[in-house]
Batch of 3 targets.
Target 1
Amino acid sequence: MSNPINRAPQLPSRVASLVAEAIAEGRWKLGERLPTERALADTYGVSRNVVREAISRLRADGLVQSRQGVGAFVARTQGTGVLRFDAELLSDRTTFANVFELRAMLEIQTAGLAAERRSDADLAVIAHAYERMVQESEGKAGGVDADLDFHRAVARATGNAQIAAVVSFLSDQIRETILATRARPDSFVGRIIEVTLAEHAAIHDAILSGSAIAAKDAMAVHIRNAAQRIGYTLTI
């Protein structure tokens, strides 16, 4: 049955809440695949982009797990006790700066481990994510998703599932801010994306070379610049 909701600034959060409630009520069981993005969009009367953002939040909460090329599956039926950052708290500059600092601490070391441990398969996934970044239109959600998938691929290349899980969680938290930065209607957006691509290429090349020092340096440059682009200065 269709259950359309009115558009609002926090629409992805509202959709995520409705899906979470449906999971808690047993509409979708543990391990069951959720309907497709299109089906959920029709159910709630929203766009597929809104559904994609809602699923991203549910994944960050640990309620669902995404399997590439297959879909999203129910990972747990209740969100209680799962690490999360409330969207309203992230709107506070100090809180968001703290999250970015945490991201820097984790991802710089992650890049070094990825350079030391990556397999040929890991390199292929990282390269594919980068290629998607290049191909996506400026300012579109797909480009941001490819960007964050790049970071997730680097984290998975460490061979440490816990690192990969935390990096994925942090990526989900900052997704909307990155999207908003790229979608700004000013003349600098194209330059921002150009520089961002160059930074990711440097990370990829460093990991490919197997140099942990180069990989950490490249990631540090990217994270610091990313923070600077949205008005934050990192000292890490």
Target 2
Amino acid sequence: MHALTFSTFGGSNVLSYQEIPKPSLKAGEVLIEMKAIGLNFADIYRRKGNYHLEGTPPYVLGYEGAGIIVEAAADSPFTAGDRVAFADVPNANAEFVAAPIDKVIPLPDGISFDTAASLLLQGLTAHYLTRDSYQIRPRDIALVHAAAGGVGQLLTQIIRLQGGIVIGLTSSKEKAAVAKANGCTDVYLYSEDWVEEVRSKTNGRGVDVVYESIGSTILDSFAAARTGGTVVFYGMAGGDPVAIDPRMLMDTSKTLTGGDLWNVLTSHEERIRRSGELFDWVLSGQLSLETPTIFSLEDGALAHDLLESRKSTGKILLRP
């Protein structure tokens, strides 16, 4: 089978589309013919060598995707032909993926492969950020970084579904328009004095919670949060964060918390419950997804370049 691989860390030029052995099925697994693969910033971090990575060279990126089961182990509840998806199975940038059955999520009618691959990892991330890292309450004011991005768009909608108010941050006026159309009451650009704008909008009080995914902006995020507010750190798309002095947290009664999806998806039941809520929201029209940008798996380097440029909005998918 073909896969998008790399053997050394670096830029997108290290990626190579090549033939590798097809996975052999083990007990407790299913073999999935991939139809859509989600691209995420974690893939960029792994390619650069600054994020956890399984296996040995040649490495295969990707943890999210959807497809059709072509073979199932005897102990599997799934059968050939089942439409399924996953959010946390490695080596997804390939034509076939062997997935443990406890990580496989059945797709309901009405949820396409593209929708599943666009929704699961980022949607489940937005889900735990608003339920586990910080429980959104009605009338909470949330500041969402990269509000026009894949997670940002879903995060905005889920906050609003729970009664919250969203102020967004983006890098361009075009992205600001996307964020506003998606439900942000106000959107500010990173090129502006957005901390002052946010504090002015909240009458000097600051927001209840900041969803920080840029990293390098973390001190500004604290400045935009109210006394007693919370900063949820879950990404570093713009660079590593500085060290945080706990005395600042003490003096301002602010909270720094984080989250990792793998600490939340602790069982098959959790995967089914959380993804089921996302699917229900999509099918009922309460949660909408921007049409994804699709690249062939062979052109994965171009997809990486687009994601790193921060010029994209919504999800980027790879098609085997």
Target 3
Amino acid sequence: MAPKLSIIILNYNTENLTRDCLNSLKKVENELDFEIIVSDNGSTDGSVAMIRKEFPNVMIVENKANLGFAKGNNQARKIAKGKYVLFLNTDTIVYPNTLRETVDYLENHKEIGALTCKVVLANGELDKDTRRAFPTPWVSFSHLVLPLDRIFTHSKLFAKYWYGYLPEDQEAEVDVIQGAFFLTPKKVLDRVGWFDEDYYLDGEDIDICWKIKVLGYKIIYHPEVSILHLKGATKGKNRATQHKVPLAARLRFRMSGVNSMEIFYKKRLWKHYPLIINLMVLAGIKALKFVRFIKVAFL
């Protein structure tokens, strides 16, 4: 019999984080019937051997190289059998009742195409990227160019990117949920073609949410349950782990986010705005690329 849920975890040289994540899942294995698939992106730190030894029931897809987030996760497509699919980061800890509650919620709300829980950082604060608006020109301008959302934190006009005007414990329909905990019915995932592999890292969660919305489904932030997110630990953005990630890898990781902005805008938003706006947006993205490169390489 097929499991109710397939949990897909992308691993790349995060042995200890992956162990902790899998141990948290082991503690809740009686909540519902789920399978775990680890898609490994060519790790060299002993991650795969550790998983085989300590978690023999976990299925492993061994990729020969670091394929990035989208393509790496998509490698599990051919073996995932669950009615629902959860994409879960290695740098997360799943708390009791989170899996059962979120899957039950989808079972009872067929109009929902994707759902996330409350994603909490190590300092106890909400991970703001848990719920986001699509990066339209105005939303991007008020978030990246003039960070008005940091000034008018509760304004519907200026603080839409992170939905700052909504209480963090309020359930809401949103545009985008984060790939750290991304739960969706497999039939919806199959209809949208899984993640767009034009994205290497970052942006793929925004893109897939766009495609799900186009089909007419809702995307829901459901904060009744939560997980812990040790944000940035896998990308060299977390100060505690930054020294473990080589400069070249950190550059690729950080620049990929800006590259993804350009890909998403050209794919999904270009046709919705006049040429002058499009050119201004692209100029802004190029400037942001330059600034980010300087920060990562020299600061």
